[in-house]
Design a protein that fits this description.
Bound molecules: adenosine-5'-diphosphate
Shape: rod-shaped
Number of strands: 22
Number of helices: 20
Radius of gyration: 51 Å
Distance between the termini: 45 Å
Oligomer: single chain
Length: 649
């Protein structure tokens, strides 16, 4: 595109500045969105997406073979059938403890906060059995009543005193109802610090546990993977007591009727896991210290901003295709990093805020960079429109300020602009060629004639010399005239109105009458009686017809006839101008409509010309939406046919 290098530099640098500003804005916006979404993931509901991803990873993580150290004795439907309706007399639990004498610790996930008025002896017997066993952990329960201070429900004092350890059995599901974590130590509203049941079962106080720190349970298998015995079968003595030797035994509800069950990451389709098994999972995590720790919200928000920044850098540098691929890769790698961190270091990094930021960056950048570039293209097009206002006839109508602001529409305009430039360049070359060669030739000839005359004044006939100079000067004028006419035909707007083509043809014939008469050539117009309406520029079309008739007369031998026929052909009016001249060689027919094209075959005398007449005719007819064709039989004549769209009056 030929434009001044300085304006090119200004264009690119202003575009570059604008694009850079857009990029900065997008980077700022996406990073800010990521930070806010990361910090307020609970409030924005994004935490749900993170949890879904987390649950999926846990489920996909290969199951752990488990740990035989922890055993569950389940109060299941079979036990209820065998031992009667719940609650049982506590002497039954005392009896069970007798069978578990070799266990390292026995924990009851059953609340004993009320005395049993029907069977006080049972309570007593149980308290005795607990004391005797010496390693029994009993549950407490934190009461949360709105408006009231947190209360701790203790077991009956006799039982509490007898127990080796106490711990609260509260399990707090997440907002979606799924249990993912346990809080191992809590500070009550009276500042008392209490420990969780699983810590009490563990036996030693955990130093690494921070108060009110919620730790994610590393569930590694679906429900039912701990060694499990039915309460009734243990009570009956079906399981030898040495089976429990040195093991941690958890006694808790398993029955569908007792209701102590929760969904966990490992349960799907509305299934649940019993509270006692969740405790067992917690105990296992505590034993091996495999808790999954969640990064603080601020840390994960900051970490999530990193891949978003990286994506912004990538889209700024890469092509759209590579940016898209880079975005996909960063999304996949970021999600993969979360999985790898979780599996290898037991650290949970919620990545959804980062994924949202990354996914936002690409479309935002595509939109803004495209918009910025297109607006610049628009501006450039406006400049072009002002710089080259004409040329409408050659490359379609002047560039419209389109309402279609789509990319293809803008590219089409750009193409038109480029076509205009190419055309302007071509015209410039033509003009240079014209000035440096065609326009100079007759002038040089005149100068040469004058010079010869000066050297040998006697040897030449002055009259002959003058007429030759006159001829050359006339050639120059004709050439200039033809050139200017051609430029006008190309550039000037058409002054269109309804014309009768028959009348126009008649006018052209009349204008050439004198010349044709001189050479005894009869011009025979054949025009229909009805008017032949077309829409066009009277001056340009009239001149085009005159050019064709002039050529026909100019290239015809004397005493011949030129036929001009006007007839309706479908939706067009057609004029055929047929002469009996020498014709045009077949291989030359294709180029006679180009500027400066002159056929080199033998021509009658006095057929000087610049080769611009037919170029003028073609441009004029094409700008009127018509066509021009030439056919010829060498030695017998040529026919030039123009067709113009017919109009109704
Ligand atoms: P010119 O000024 O040379 O006539 P034109 O553009 O009108 O330029 O024509 C281009 C060339 O086409 C002419 O030089 C001539 O060789 C050929 N030509 C045009 N009209 C006729 C015709 N009626 N018969 C034969 N040759 C023609």
């Amino acid at each position: 595109m030929p434009s001044h290098p300085d304006s090119d530099t200004t264009f690119w640098s202003s575009l570059e500045k604008r694009v850079h500003a857009e990029w900065l804005a997008i980077t700022f916006l996406t990073v800010l969105t990521t930070l806010l979404v990361g910090l307020y993931s609970e409030q924005t509901g994004i935490a749900r997406l993170d949890d879904t991803f987390y649950d999926g990873v846990l489920r996909a993580w290969p199951n752990d073979p488990g740990d035989n150290d922890i055993v569950i004795i389940a109060i299941d439907d079979g036990s209820i059938d065998a031992l009667g309706r719940w609650p049982w007399h506590r002497s039954v639990h005392a009896e069970l403890l007798g069978r578990l004498s070799e266990a390292r610790r026995v924990g009851f996930d059953i609340v004993f906060s009320e005395p049993n008025p029907d069977n006080p002896e049972g309570d007593h017997a149980f308290a005795q059995a607990v004391t005797q066993h010496g390693r029994v952990v009993l549950p407490t329960f934190i009461m949360h009543q709105p408006g009231a201070p947190q209360g701790l429900h203790m077991p009956l004092p006799v039982l509490a005193n007898a127990a080796a350890g106490l711990g609260y059995i509260n399990i707090y599901p997440d907002s979606d109802g799924t249990v993912r974590s346990l809080t191992l130590q809590r500070t009550l509203s009276d500042n008392r610090s209490v420990q969780h049941f699983v810590v009490a079962m563990h036996g030693q106080s955990e130093k690494s546990i921070r108060p009110d720190d919620s730790l994610r349970i590393p569930f590694r298998a679906p429900a039912g993977h701990f060694p499990f015995y039915s309460y009734a079968s243990v009570l009956r003595g079906d399981v030898p007591s040495d089976h429990f030797r040195d093991r941690l035994v958890l006694v808790g509800a398993w029955s569908s009727g007792l209701g102590d069950t929760y969904p966990t990451p490992m349960t799907t389709d509305g299934q649940t896991m019993s509270g006692v098994e969740i405790m067992a999972n917690g105990m296992l995590a505590l034993k091996h210290d495999t808790w999954i720790r969640t990064l603080p919200a601020w840390a994960s928000a900051l970490l999530n901003a990193l891949p978003v920044l990286l994506t912004c850098l990538a889209v700024r540098r890469f092509s759209p295709r590579h940016s898209f691929l880079a975005t996909l890769s960063i999304i996949s790698l970021w999600a993969l990093l979360a999985v790898v961190l979780l599996i290898s270091t037991h650290v949970w990094l919620p990545v959804t805020s980062g994924l949202i930021g990354i996914a936002l960056a690409f479309p935002l950048w595509s939109w803004r960079s495209q918009e910025a570039s297109l607006q610049h293209i628009d501006r450039e097009l406006q400049h072009l429109r002002r710089a080259i206002p004409g040329n409408a006839g050659v490359i379609g109508d002047a560039m419209p300020i389109t309402v279609d602001r789509s990319l293809p529409a803008r590219v089409r305009l750009l193409h038109q602009a480029i076509a205009r430039f190419r055309h302007a360049q071509q015209k410039r070359e033509e003009t240079l060629r014209f000035l440096s060669h065609d326009a100079r030739a007759p002038q040089n000839a005149i100068l040469a004639l004058i010079e010869m005359q000066r050297r040998e004044p006697e040897s030449r006939d002055t009259q002959a010399l003058l007429s030759r100079i006159e001829q050359r000067a006339a050639d120059t004028l004709a050439l200039m005239d033809g050139f200017v006419q051609l430029e006008r035909a190309e550039c000037l707007p058409l002054n269109k109105r309804l014309l009768d083509l028959g009348g126009l043809l008649q006018e052209a014939c009349d204008a050439g009458w004198e010349v044709s008469r001189r050479r005894s050539i009869s011009v025979m117009p054949n025009v229909p009686s009805e008017p032949a309406w077309v829409e066009g520029d009277h001056q340009l079309l009239g001149r085009a017809l005159r050019n064709l008739l002039d050529n026909a007369v100019k290239y015809s031998p004397e005493h011949t006839t030129v036929h001009c026929r006007l007839a309706r052909k479908g939706a067009t009016w057609e004029i055929a101008i047929q002469d009996q001249g020498p014709g045009i060689p077949e291989h030359q027919l294709g180029r006679i409509f180009e500027p400066f094209a002159r056929v080199t075959a033998e021509m009658p005398a006095e057929t000087s010309g610049a080769g611009l007449g037919l170029a003028f005719v073609r441009i004029t007819i094409e700008r009127h939406g018509g066509t021009i064709t030439a056919s010829s039989i060498q030695g017998r004549g040529s026919t030039f046919t123009i067709a113009l769209p017919a109009m109704e009056a």
